Amino acid sequence: MRKSTFSFVLGALCAVLAGTIGSFALLRMLNTETVVVSTRTLYPYTRIEAGDVTTVTVSKTSGIAGLATNESAVIGHYLSYTVPKGDPVTAGDLNPSGGSFSTFLTQYTERTGQTGMLMSLPVQSPLASVVNPGEQIALLVPQQNGTTQTLTTIEPVPVLNVLQPAKGGTPTALLIFVSEENYKILAPAVLKNNVQVALIPQNDSFAAPGSIPLANSPSTLPAANGIVSTTHVTTLPPKTGSTGSNTTSKGGGHG
Fold it and tell me: Where is the SAF domain (predicted)?
């Protein structure tokens, strides 16, 4: 009789314990969800590959809308915004039109509140080849006006991504975002391969030299009186708190 009672009590305890464990498991399942997160920092206009994302279990209290819950929902899609390593990927981060540049531009301007143009700047100089996504650069556009050479400085210019060939390899272009005003300056210069990339500090404290002499410039022309003009370029730092790019253009002849 004692053995039967003990077995009954033990069975009841096991049933209660199993029920408790089951309740905790059910409660945990109801309060958590599986979401897709990035395995590395992903930049705008990146095509998501299988190794770029993974799934983790998180609390449902995150409050983030549109979370992707399956890797297949994001693999093969292009991003419109940067997703830091370990952050979840949402439907709003994806370009709904595949690799459409126009859709990408629309999404980018809507989220940032800035107006401007996207440009693909060919990597044609050593400095351009060491630029990383997410950094800011300065673009220098030299122009010859008669006997005077000017250098237009556009800065800071955000580099949204560094584009590479589909099969990988050496970067071929920098994906940048510029104002419409600066686009009109850059577009013809890009076609003439006449844009230089300059690196600037990435701590929002751009401190360029006050004057940069362009010595031995092959494009410097003799003045009408036969005297070769000396060109100096004056650059100015961006305004504090400014989100756009500033353009500075100074003429030569200030020896």
Answer: 33-95
